[in-house]
Design a protein that fits this description.
Strand content: over 45%
Oligomer: single chain
Number of helices: 11
Helix content: 10-25%
Number of strands: 45
Distance between the termini: 113 Å
Amino acid sequence: MSKITSKPFLLKTAKYTGITLAVILALLFLTPVLFADQIKEKIKKTANESLTAELNYSDVSVSFFRHFPSLTLTLKDLQLNGSAPYKNEKFITAKEVSFGIDVLSLIFSKSAKIDEIYLSDSFINVKVNPNGEANYNIYKSTPQDSKPEDSTNTALKLDRIEILNSKIIYDDQSTKVHFDALGFDYLGKGDINKAVFDLHSKAKIEKLNIIYDNEPYLMNKKVDADLITQVNMNSLSFFFQQNNLKINQLSVDFQGKFDFLKDGYNMDFVIKSDDSELYDVFTAFPPKYVTWLSKTELKGNTNLLLTLKGKYIASQNIAPDLNFDLKIEDGFINYDDSDFPVSDLNVEIKSKLPSLKPGLLIVNAANLSLNVGDDYFKSKFYLEGIDAPNVDAEFKAKLDLEKLNKGLGVPGLTLRGILTGDVKAKGKFDRKNKLFPIANGTIELKKGFVKTGYYPNPITNIEFKTTIEDKKGTFEDLKLNLKPAQFTFEEKPVFVQAFLNNFADLNYDVTAKGELDVQKIYKVFSHKGLNLDGFIKADLALKGKQSDAINGNYDRLNNKGTLEIRNIGITSEFLPQKFIIRDGLFKINQDKVLFNNFLASYGQSDFKMDGYLQNAINYVTRKKGILHGSFTVSSKYINVDEFMFNNTPNTSSSKSKTKSGVIIIPDNFDLELIANAQKVYFDKLILENAGGNLKINNNKLTMQQTGFNLIGCHVAMNGSYEAVNTQNANFEYKIKASDFNIKRAYNEIDVFRKMASAAEKAQGIVSLDYKLKGRLDGDMKPVYPSLVGGGILSVKDVKVRGLKLFNAVSKKTDNESMKNPDVSKVDIKTTVKNNIMTIERFKFKFAGFRPRIEGTTSLDGKLNLKMRLGLPPFGIFGIPLTVTGTGENPKVKVGRTTEDLEETKD
């Protein structure tokens, strides 16, 4: 009986179970369809309410089965732009972005609750500009006085974040930090809906690149991380509690705190690796060392510690403190089973960089030592500061460089020679106060040999012995002795010998002889792709005292010899491009360096130069030494625009930038140039047959008896130019131009067009005698409110056609002949100040009328003129008129009342 009754029960149970499962499956399929539009609408609404950035995607799908059992909304081909100032650039792109949604929130809540996020094949491009403005500030901020909503009403309640096969680029120009994470996989879990929660993360990176200030520190490194991070969403802070990283084979512990501030960050990071094997450390080095590592036996214990602590606020010039410590004990290096392994390698370095300011750098290298068989190298040094550092250093060595080279196996480098040294130095190096560390020691190299992989031939026969001595810690007591030094390159020997003492009043005895191909010897040490040209041939003997050169006691000097150079490139902070000396011969005679037939080029410009420099030794050896000289310079073509920084690409970043700035005149030049050039191009003007006398002295350029042909007339000009800083310069000049075409001047000269806007419709011949001074901006353009000056514009024979001013006067006086006056033999005197040109009263005659004009115009075109139109036959009776408005829209009224134009002061 029981069997009979149990059978229907089982059938009913199976039936209802099947129906239930069918209903559940039906709901799984139907719910996304039923609520698809509602989900899409709520997601779009949530995005619009929450984001300041533009969000786009190609398609939307809803399913239970993509990330079962969550109801998942998937956006395909997502593109999310960044926040200002990167609103037009992509912040996040992804093939797919999926959101896990709480189903009940669709029915009972005003906004969809998102508790999971999945990204696949995404690109996250984080950017921060030099001012600290980032592209990730995409969430709309709420007023500070508003109370935070309860977490149950928030639209974002995450407890899972998953990123697959993605790429992250972080480029922070304010801190000069750049890193790439390629092949990035991430899984994050936690009660992310809470205001404060622990985030458990696992991350893998196939290739990690870290670059600071354009210098690569880690390249193509594999990273495996297991992290626990406490996140406080109220204060936007992150506390890294337990973070185990593995960079290739190097295990690193990472702890710290990171807070987002209104205009920057607050950081407290500790990164360390304790008791690591030296081999594991090298696995984290750049890729070029990996091949070397595979052939090298490495042993030793290593400890690394890096800390970064403090606030970073770019706008206030606040930066954190950086400390880095490295310790290697009992290191052993043997490349390719060499017979000369490096043993007893010990390194102990502690460094501090307060506020990331190089001038405050402290480096304490308490021990740098190694042995190669019976040879040894021992060193320690302490450095505090950069500009006037405190130094405490010791160096002692006896090394066969060939043995060391074989033991280390440095790729692409071959060294030979016996290096010995014993040097001690302690004290302050302060050039301003002429202090030098107390020092004593000798460094000697015999039978030296250097060959790199960048050039096929070595530098051989390197021999030198240098001694240094300073017992009192002053420039006056410093002695440097370079006993006969020599080397041979490309079968050409070079010899140098020098004895220098009393650097407060340098006493020198230097001889140099030999030929040197700068291009080839540069390639010995250079990376491929870089190049430097140049050839130097020297035969010099220099002997004397600095004070004798300064005081003109040239009979006590014995400086003579020649220095021949070809294709030498000269770079300077004062010039945006390279100045290349194609050919030149220096002849040295006492305190003069004579230039014979120098040929040079700078961009498109060419120069031929003869002359001399004087006081060259004092200029080179003293920071404030003044270089005197006189030259005759001729040129076929000079492009002045090339000397300005705004045409120069700045290659310090991946993208080309422009650097604005005026031409800087060095303060320790006292030079005179008698120059002539067939053509000079400057700011869209072409000057022909330019010549004159130029003097450079005390940051100032003075032009005397300067002349050139411009727009068909001869222009004579005297003037001066002086840079105030990199963005401002003062100028003053007097110009006299006779009989030039006023139409060409208006069309071709920007300054004339600004200052003589009434000449737009004029034709004929005029002359100009004018003085003007003012300021130039960073683009070498005149700042018009700064202009002060005055002069005379002499009208010889000018026809004015279609000028709106005379059209308006003609219309007001009902006189057709006023439209197109012909003017001759009139001197117009004007003065300029505070952006206002004042026109003194002048008269002229035409067609029986005798107009009289005076008043003011602004350099931006505003008019305030008084005019009396004297009527025929003798102009005894006249009509008073006022002209206001602008040159484009003049307003003419009968009467004498006018309103002063507003001055613009610089």
